[in-house]
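Researcher: Last one for today. Full complex below.
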Amino acid sequence: MTERAKEYDILVVGSGHAAVEAALSGARLGHSVAIVTLNPPNIAGMPCNPAIGGPGKAQIVSEIDALGGEMALAVDSSTIELRVLNASKGPAVQSLRAQVDKKLYAGHMRVALREAGVTIRQGMVTGLRVKSGAVCGVVLDSGEYVGALRVVLCPGVYLESRIIIGDVVRESGPLGEPAAKGLSESLRRLGISMGRFKTGTSPRIAADSIRWDELKRETGALTPLAFSFLSEPRVYNNDVCYSTYTNELTHKIICDNLHRSPLFDGTIEGTGPRYCPSIEDKVYRFPERERHQIFLEMEAKDSEEVYILGLSTSLPVDVQLEMVHSLPGLREARIVKPGYAIEYDRILPNQIKPSLEVVGVDGLFSAGQINGTSGYEEAAAQGLMAGINAVLSLEGRTPVVLERSQAYIGVLIDDIVGNVIDEPYRMLTSRCEYRLLLRQQNADQRLTPIGRRIGLVSDKRWRVFEEKKAMLEKGRELLRVKVGGSEVRDRLRTPNTSLADFFELLPELADLPEEVRAEIELEAKYSGFIERQEREALRLRRYAGKRIPPGLSASQVPGLSREARDKLEKYAPPTIGRALETGVSPQDALILLAYMKNWGAKGGSEGDGE
Amino acid sequence: MREDTIAAIATPPGTGGISIVRVSGPDAVSVAGKAVKLKSGAALSSLKPWTVRLASVADKDGAQIDEALVFIMKAPRSYTGEDLVEVQCHGGSLVSQKVLAALLEGGARHAEPGEFTRRAFLNERITLEEAEAVLDVVEAPTEYALSQAGRRLRGELGDKVRRWEGTLYSALAAFQAGIDFPEDVDHGSCRAIEEMAAVHKEVAGLLDRAPLGLALTSGIEVCLVGPPNAGKSSLFNALLAADRAIVTEVPGTTRDILRERTEWNGLPVLLLDTAGLRETSDIVETIGVERAERAASESEVIVYVVDSTVGLTGGDKEWIKKWLKQGRRVLLVASKIDATPRRLTEGELSEAAGGSYVMASAKTGAGLEEIRKRVTGWFSRGGDLDLLAPGSARQVDCLRRASSSLGEALSRHAEGWTEDVVVMCLEEALKALAELTGKNVTEETLEQVFSRFCIGK
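Model: Here's the assembly. Have a good evening.
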């Protein structure tokens, strides 16, 4: 095996949602990029349900779009049904959720990768090559060495994965692929501690074995909508989603077979997510519930396979079948692929920097489930940021780290790099302190200028952004007109006036595009609350958000108490705020701040991102 | 980047000659100005920076708390580098806690441990070495100790706060489960709103009793005043059940102030005996009279003692009227009721003191228990001493913020605002309570969401 010089600027391990965004941003920013994947046809696949968005997640998708990522465009080109969730609960929590045709989605991504010039290589990465503390390439299962200046790890749930169905345990990845062997061990040898997580999915049913007339049809939104700021809003309402409920019989079948569940007999050791319990877990934990809602989602418009949302399980196949047959419309259903639980390795927290570079190995980045998250959207967001920061570090530029008050992506990354995550992390609106600031609809206003500075925002996106911005300014100006003694914007500050009430007086308002009208209306209506959150964000950002440079070692800071030194070394908090949370005293935090200030002046600091 | 305005007691807790209460931040002058007026009657904002003036500090109802020296330092030439107001009030933790409470009422936030010094350092007013020294010497025993004391929730209050917190988290979880899992959870917010309203009522009720909490922490100052030879010192000894004061037939025997700690109905009391209020040519006695007046105006309760064989004079009525007008608690005691002749009627007493009077005798012990009951009754609202109350100004501040956010959540809901706004206010209330209990709001909410609602695909 001869070790040649670098072949690629950036090498991406994996081909899921994190990998795709990482590769696209690297290539679009002008670097040579290759993806190494176990199975090229599975690029941008959806091994869980064929849906994107929902509360917290939809905001992430719009943020990826605003920064110049691809996910929202892929969704818009493959949506088969689109809904607005939380429509009546307020602008802070309103979110889109799309059911997509997973073949069209993957197709869109394959075209995007090709157009961006990303090389796709088949193979399994079994090890990393590191020279004087910096990554320089990877080794494949074929023994081949591939040199690269930066490596982004996006291996999903494949690291040393085990699939569990009843008492059957196999070393395997999802989608019929093998588990990724060796890479975990290679990371451990580099001093990185690994942990184990578990997740699961539901059985897939043959579409032609379902009696659709016994199920309730779910309808999509009837107003035109879109995820991307670049897409034309459309109505997507196809015959693709149905619902029903579990019943007494289903629950009896589960209870009678609980002893055969690997969750209950100790076979599964990994920690599963609380927000995504298996049906056996739900029945066990909520015995008073007589029924649980089940959704049947087509995986494509003409899909032969149907996903059962709400029936995630790792019970033996014969029990799964009995369970499925107890449901209305599914008495004669055929299971195409059984549900399963999957266990996999992940990097334990506090070993990843806010730039998503792995602590201790220069040039190595990680994104997605390997960082302890769950979900396509969460993975894509990290892939995008890892790709961007890999490029910035190649070019000797300061990494981009978004603040908690700037983006859901900022919340996501801040949480996973600094928190003790003991279950797969899913984004929820409750995790975000500044929900009224981080609306799905204003993601472009928040982030497109940052994407432009990075270089990912195309001229077309920039033009669309600037046009909307000008329109917003015009709209805000119109709201300053006085009607009956007070400005329109002040009169909007109650829940029962609407912008439409002023169309007669100010016909120019009615001429503005719908998205602009909606935005200026809620800016005015919620201005009091928005300002409150802005003030709070400023207050916290000043001290708590202050980043502790990853290279800073507590032992080199003179004057710190022993207790603080121990805590800083043990938890490696990324920010002063986190340090205070681990119990570092304010006095010690102050000493740390002072040291950081001098450290920054000497040029050792990474800076604060934007 | 506008900072908010913070306040805290900057001197060590306990009884000292003076206490310094500090307010710092862009709105320091206007915030402090709500509670602090110059003795000349002028607004605090008219005070020239770096000059010291006598001022009076009042609570939000206008009742005077203390007289204090005050001065303003303008940014950036102040300790913190921000606008800074220093109020030097009388020592003793009750007075300074009350001054602080008034300043927090005016819109300041209670400073976090070390926050003044942190601001001073970040505004480049002091170097790191200086900051460390200051923190070691000054901050550790004061602000920090204070906040630690604030964190130590007394058992029953702690239980109560944690119970409210539990109810509010379950309300928040009901909203949040519906928001984060709209397809799984179809919640009714009615119950959550009802529970929030019930908690709000209880928190408001507790805040009403804040004076009791302060009393429990610092003791109630009860000052015996009245004309010479009215029997104050006899009463003082009788109430303490000890021969502490020298009692003679000679008017003006007590010249300086005597202070003794005791306990009435479970409440700590600091009882003060003072010189008789009269015009006199004796210089020492004159000073004593001035001190008596001053002690009375600083105490929690004024017990005005008259000799029942002498009767109420016009002077007595003037004093009582003046203090009642200032909103002070005055108890009129007719002493020596075992003796004759009696030169006053209950009608007269009642009229002079607005119904608040007791007939007593130090000799027979008649009326003594009634005096104790009347005094503590003011603090326990009807004498129920099992009622709980928040103990320090910091706790009062947290509860006040929790109560006001909760009130806002309820009114926003009633006005028809969307759930995101109601949830935001509810979260603010829980964050304020978390300063007392140390919970992490996000984690607590998620824990509740996942354990109480069946969610997930």
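Residues 155-180 of chain B form the longest helix (26 residues). Chain B touches chain A through 45 residues (CB under 8 Å).
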